[in-house]
Specification:
Blueprint (H helix, E strand, L loop, with lengths): L6 H17 L9 H14 L20 H13 L9 H13 L2 H12 L5 E4 L15 E5 L2 E12 L6 E7 L10 E7 L5 E6 L8 E12 L3 E2 L5 H16 L2 H17 L1 E2 L2 E2 L4 H29 L7 H24 L18 H14 L6 H12 L12
Parallel strand pairs: 1-4
Antiparallel strand pairs: 2-3, 3-7, 4-5, 5-8, 6-7, 9-10
Helix pairs in contact: 1-3, 4-5, 4-6, 6-9, 7-8, 7-9, 8-9, 9-10, 9-11
This protein binds flavin-adenine dinucleotide.
Length: 397
């Protein structure tokens, strides 16, 4: 298997490099870093390097899907630490959902400012008692005149405290069967009736929230897909959520940090990188990352050809969270008792960011649950991928 880039792609790489040399890092020192980043992203969109799959009329650069060009851009941008796509739930999950299933006016209104990071979204899916069994959700949406009136509670809503809007699943047809009675609504978070209560985690931060909705209003046409067909729309969003999580590049970056940590950590009077058992663990993880990268290429190739990635996507989400956990676990073992320092603290004069690794470890536990738990991924891979018999239904009391 030849994994080197062809001449065509190496030529493309030199175009990207020329662009970066001209635009990053910015030459002027007067404007803020934020403004410089925003301006750079706009220039990169105009040059066709960012927001590539998004039509020009919604603020993108409308390039043909090309997995290898996308990889070259990522590599070159990372090499000089230039800002890439705006991260987050809005650009990663809502934008592709709107492009697939939204109305024209919804795309025009929301896509460009979301891609520029000017508006921030949160995902209102989970409810107490409705996580893996998401279709059992109870938050109600009632059409009153020209508005939906929404009442209920969401939970684990990441970033709700910073969000301008929520994409939210609500039960709009109480008489319909579980999956059939749900609608996908867009909600302005800056209105009375929305009560965001942060959930404090053991590391002191509060990444997610409970959100209580009391007589919250949203216009009748702020619905994505048809009334009662929100379940279908929600599957589109979840597909993109798994894509966002199951990315081998993130694992490779974290692994590079782990090798660096092993190099700098002392074990029995020498660098931990010299320790045979540490080396053994590192080699095992690196092998899994390589396999994950190739599996990621398969997924991207299928996506570029407009083919259904099938269970590869679920395998990649599972691989990515398993690898992330293995990397973080080894980092904690390397740090030994130092990893027990309070989050936020640093060893004086140390280059090691201890709280970073500890938080990474805790994050690795959470991300294995978010967007569909590892157990659920395994069940689907087993049943749909390997043709195993269906799991016995869970009896809920
Ligand atoms: C870091 C993080 C961020 C999140 N962000 C958001 C967000 O922004 N918005 C949002 O809406 N939600 C969010 N969530 C919620 C997440 O989607 C749910 O936690 C997840 O769907 C699991 O639901 P649950 O917590 O109710 O667990 P449950 O569904 O109750 O599952 C508990 C355990 O039982 C297992 N289990 C359940 N059913 C089955 C089955 N049929 N077969 C085998 N095992 C089963 C699960 O795998 C799990 O181990 C977030 C969660 C985390 C951890």
């Amino acid at each position: 298997m030849d994994l080197s880039y062809s001449e065509e792609y190496e030529k493309f790489r030199s175009q990207v490099r020329t662009f970066l040399e001209a635009h990053w890092p910015p030459k002027d020192s007067e404007t803020s870093r934020e403004d410089q980043t925003a301006r750079f992203r706009q220039q990169a969109i105009e040059a066709g390097y960012l927001a590539r799959s998004i039509p020009k009329k919604y603020g993108g650069s409308e390039q043909e899907a090309d997995v290898l060009k996308a990889a070259v851009i990522r590599e070159e941008f990372r090499r000089v630490r230039a800002p890439g796509e705006v991260a987050g739930i809005g650009p990663g999950m809502l934008v592709p959902t709107l492009l697939d299933r939204g109305e024209e006016w919804q795309k025009e209104k929301f896509v460009a400012p979301t891609m520029r990071g000017e508006i921030v979204w949160c995902q209102g899916y989970s409810e107490p008692g409705s996580g893996s069994d998401l279709a059992s959700l109870q938050t109600k949406g009632e059409l009153v005149g020209d508005e939906w009136v929404i009442n209920g509670q969401k939970i684990w809503t990441s970033g709700a405290q910073h969000a301008d809007y929520m994409f939210c699943l609500t039960r709009t047809e109480p008489e319909a069967q579980k999956h059939a009675g749900i609608s996908y609504l867009l909600i302005d978070m800056h209105q009375p009736g929305i009560d965001v209560r942060p959930l404090k985690q053991m590391n002191g931060s509060a990444d997610f929230n409970e959100v209580f909705l009391t007589d919250v209003r949203t216009p009748k046409d702020w619905i994505v897909g048809k009334r009662g067909e929100g379940w279908l729309v929600s599957r589109t969003t979840l597909k993109h959520e798994r894509n966002m999580i199951g990315n081998a590049e993130q694992s490779a970056l974290m692994f590079a940090g782990l090798v660096d940590l092993a190099r700098k950590t002392q074990r029995n009077g020498r660098s931990a990188l010299q320790d045979p058992s540490v080396r053994q663990h590192l080699v095992e993880i690196e092998g899994r990352i390589k396999a994950h990268q190739y599996s990621g290429h398969r997924q991207l190739t299928k996506a570029a050809k407009n083919q259904d990635p099938g269970i590869i996507q679920l395998m990649n989400k599972l691989n990515s969270t398993n690898i992330g956990h293995a990397v973080a676990k080894l980092s904690i073992e390397l740090l030994e008792d130092d990893s027990l320092l309070e989050p936020g603290s640093r060893l004086p004069d140390s280059e090691l960011d201890l709280s970073g690794w500890m938080n990474q470890y805790m994050w690795s536990l959470g991300i294995a649950v978010a967007g569909g738990t590892a157990n659920i991924q395994r069940n689907v891979i087993g049943e749909r991928g390997l043709g195993l018999p269906r799991d016995a239904a869970v009896q809920r009391s």
